Amino acid sequence: MSLFNYEDSEAIGGVFSVDTGSVLVRVEDVEQLRKLQVNHLVALRSSRTGQHLIGIIHKIMRKALMKPLDEETDEATPEDGTFEENIIRVTLIGTLKDKAGEKPNVFQRTLESVPEIDARCFILSGERLTKFMQAISIGAGTKPNALSLGKYTIDEDANAWLDGNRFFQRHAVLVGATGSGKSCATAHILEQVEPLQNSNAILFDIHGEYKTIEGDNIQHFHVAGPSDLDQGTGLADNVIFLPYWLLTYEEMIAFLLDRSDLNAPNQAMLFARSVTKAKKDYLEKEDKNEILKNFTIDSPVPYSLDSVIGSLKILNEEKVPGATGKPIKGDFHGKLSRFLQRLEAKIGDRRLGFMFGGGKDVMDYDWMLTLCTKLIGGSGQQPYGGVKIIDFSEVPSDVLPLMTGMVARLVFSIQQWTEKEELHPIAIFCDEAHLYIPEHLAANAVNEAGFRSFERIAKEGRKYGVGLVVISQRPSEVNRTILSQCNNFIAMRLTNAEDQSVIRRLLPDSLGGFSELLPILDTGEAIVVGDASLLPSRIRIDLPKKKPTSATIDFWDEWSKKSTSTGIANAVESLRLQAKIKKNLPVR
Ligand SMILES: Nc1ncnc2c1ncn2[C@@H]1O[C@H](COP(=O)(O)OP(=O)(O)OP(=O)(O)O)[C@@H](O)[C@H]1O
Ligand SMILES: [Mg+2]
Hints:
- The chain is of the alpha/beta class and 588 residues long.
- It has 3 domains: 8-124, Elongation Factor Tu (Ef-tu), domain 3; 170-241 and 379-551 and 566-574, 3-Layer(aba) Sandwich (Rossmann fold); 250-340, no CATH class.
- The chain contains 17 helices and 21 strands.
- β17 (426-430), α13 (445-464) and β18 (466-472) form a beta-alpha-beta unit.
- The model has no long low-confidence stretch (mean pLDDT 84).
- Magnesium ion is lined by residues 182-183, 550.
- Adenosine-5'-triphosphate binds next to α4.
């Protein structure tokens, strides 16, 4: 049955001027005009039966005109002066067909016909709006797993649905100024992903603000901090180590090499040689003959850093017999000193314990499987594991791009090597993406190395079922290549002109004035555009059941309270330890 069973009497007016993409409608009743708002939706009867044209109100006008002449006498009527005409300009955005083939109520972003003069115009609201919105977020009305975002601002009775398939298939962007509600929106989306039987999503939680999000299918992990290093053997299940041997050669070099060092090429070459040797030794010891045959320096095989350092030290101190028989300095004598110094300093840095600590466990051949199972696999009965929130808050900011990049790369590689018939899609939510997928890479090798993983996912992820959700408060500082691969936009309030212009350029041209709403959106409100919603809409996103701990602090209220304690002592000690001390623990 047609969604739009409008009676003629419900019309607000008729079309009196038609342009290619827009029409003018004369609204007959001034009371009707008062109810209309810019950005509301209207339906117009099309010249083709079974079709309605859908438009957005772009402008509402009252025009003053001269009073028409009396038809019979051709003289001005006694009430000389002006009268007013109520006009709305409507931008046409698509067609709703009652039926296309077998499918009922199909919305298309094309205009196969234009409305005729005097075509009736109806306002789209309430239940009709909800039904229309459900019809356009393909399958939403029939499938129970459509992603619900919140309510349309233009009609708070209408639920806003996104097509959950399309949203993750071709990547999404969630942007908004600080405090505009991104983290809450993320939590709200995750709360709906979580109950799906076989869902699979990873969230990079950079500030540790998602600890409060709970559910049967939500697991919390954190990247090991200094306080996790002294736990002895048997690492806790929720702690993640990201050992150095999982880094590719490029990444390791980006991390260790000082490119400005004169000896950098030698250092890189010798490091590569000794790492390859150390990996070979490891594989031989473990009897992995198949892998020995075709492993490369990039193969994720554990190796002993001690033996690498040992062999580099030998070269660095080596003396060889000279022409006269007297020992002279070897080819690389002293050329590795600074490299070794850097390497040893990093190994000794407790903040990097997640990379160099972990003891014997992380050197186990099967340890990578354990890690990947944590990241991709599920817990309990399910082979796949709901939502995994990884807290990166104790990872120093200078290596953050490397570590997030490594996790993303592992996920992508596993997907790549999974048989097609066993492939299971996974979404990676990157909160605070400007910190590790930055726009400006050139100056920083670490940024670049991490970026490569995200770039691959953005470009090729669709084929292997890896979806990115890029979340950031500074879209102008997030890498443009990644952003331009994203097909869904949830843009919350953006006040900065640069950020606005980045988003404006990413949105489709046909949206016209829609992006002008960006600075005036309320907290929790968003413009949603893209594959998953077909129709550009302004949506008030529902609050999640459990909010992340990112609440905006009420300065005045806090200052007005009486308080007897401060957390300064704990904070100072935490700062020194580079680890959060739990409350009530005696300060050492
Ligand atoms: N949908 C919503 N409706 C009403 N209030 C909201 C909504 N979303 C967020 N808020 C309020 O805004 C505050 C900040 O939200 P949130 O932490 O999600 O911001 P953010 O955009 O992630 O900021 P940042 O970029 O600094 O991380 C929340 O504490 C919450 O009270
Ligand atoms: Mg946030």
